[in-house]
Amino acid sequence: MDxxxxxxxxxxxxxxxxxxxRNRLEAIxxxxxxxxxxxxxxxxxxxxxxxxxxxxxxxxxxxDALIATDLDGVIIATPSALHAAQSIEAIEKGKxxxxxxxxxxxAEEVKEVVQKAMENDVLLxxxxxxxxxxxxxxxxxxxxxxxxxxxxxxxxxxxxxYGPDKSWYFDPKLxxxxxxxxxxxxxxxxxxxxxxxxxxxxxxxxxxxKGKLIVNTDQQVEDxxxxxxxVKGSIAVQMACSWNLPAGVDAVIEVSFYGxxxxxxxxxxxxxxxxxxxxxxxxxxxxxxxxxxxxxxxxAGVHWAEELASKGNSFxxxxxxxxxxxxxxxxxxxxx
Length: 336
Ligand SMILES: NC(=O)c1ccc[n+]([C@@H]2O[C@H](COP(=O)([O-])OP(=O)(O)OC[C@H]3O[C@@H](n4cnc5c(N)ncnc54)[C@H](O)[C@@H]3O)[C@@H](O)[C@H]2O)c1
Prior knowledge:
9-stranded mixed sheet; Dihydrodipicolinate Reductase, domain 2; disordered N terminus; Rossmann fold; 2 domains; binds nicotinamide-adenine-dinucleotide; alpha/beta
C-alpha cells in the first residue's frame, strides 16, 4: 500500500483557547481524530478549562515552546492581529496550520502567509465554518447546476445584534477592522468560494461607527457597513453587516442569489446564530432544500485535521482563495 495513503493520527497543538479556541478544541477532541499534545494561552484559567477536553495535553508558555515540540499541526485562535505572524512562525517550522479568521488584517499579511505555506509545502486552512453547513452546501449545488439561468443579483447579510464582548475587537490595530473584518469576512469568503475565485470589480462601500460615517478606518472600527460590488462582470452583489444593529432579533444572516430562472437563499431561522434554512425560489413560490438541526461549528477544523491525517502535510492550492477574499476586503476598506 502506498504509505502516503495510510491514515495517521496527527499530533496537534492549540495556541489561544479563549471562546472559539476552546470550542474548536472540543469539536476536534470529540471526533477522536487527533492527538492533542499541547495548549498555550497566557490566560491560565482558559488553558486549564481547555484541559478538560484534552487531559493529556501539556500546558506550554508560548508559541515558541509549542512549535519546538513534535507536532504535526497548530490551531491558532488568538486575537486577529497575531494570526499572520503566528501562522508564519508555525509554517516555517513545517507545521500545518488551522487559523481562525481573519488570516491577516489586510491582503499583504494574508499573501505573505499563503506564500510561506506554499514555499514550505504545508497544509494551511482558515476557519470559514459556514462553507461546511448543509445549507450552504445545498446552495452551492444549486449554483453549480446552472438551474438559476443567468445569475444577476446577490445579497449577503450578517448582522450580529450584540457585537463582540472583548476590548481587542474595538482596536483597529488588534482586530484589523470592525464588523466587516469580523462578520463580512465570512460573506466575502463564501462569495469567493461559491463562484470559484471570481473577478470582483466596482467595489463601493460606506462604513459607520455609532451612526456616523468613518473617515479613517485606521483609527476607528466600523459597526455598520454596506458594500456593493460587481462579480464576474455581471452579478450585482450587495453586502451589509453590523454589530449592535437594532435588528429586532439576535442575528440576521443571509446569502441569496437571483437568476433569470429562479433564486436560492440561505437564511438564519428566528434570529438564530446556528439554525439555517436554504430555500429554492421559483417566482412567488419557495421550497426548502436544507433545514435546520445540524451541529456545524467545528466542522472546518475537523475537516483540516482529517485532511492532515489522510493526505499528510502538504500545501492545498485552495488557500489562494484567502488572498482573493483579503483583496476584496481591502477594497471595501478603501485601502491601498
Ligand atoms: N470562525 C469563526 O466563525 C469565529 C468565531 C469567533 C471568533 N473567531 C476568531 O477567533 C479569534 C479569537 O476570538 P475569540 O472570540 O475566541 O477571542 P478571545 O479573546 O476569547 O480568545 C483569544 C485568546 O487568545 C489568548 N491569547 C492572547 N494572546 C496570546 C498569545 N500571544 N499566545 C497565545 N494565546 C494568546 C487570550 O488569552 C484568549 O484566551 C479571533 O480572531 C476571531 O476573529 C472566529
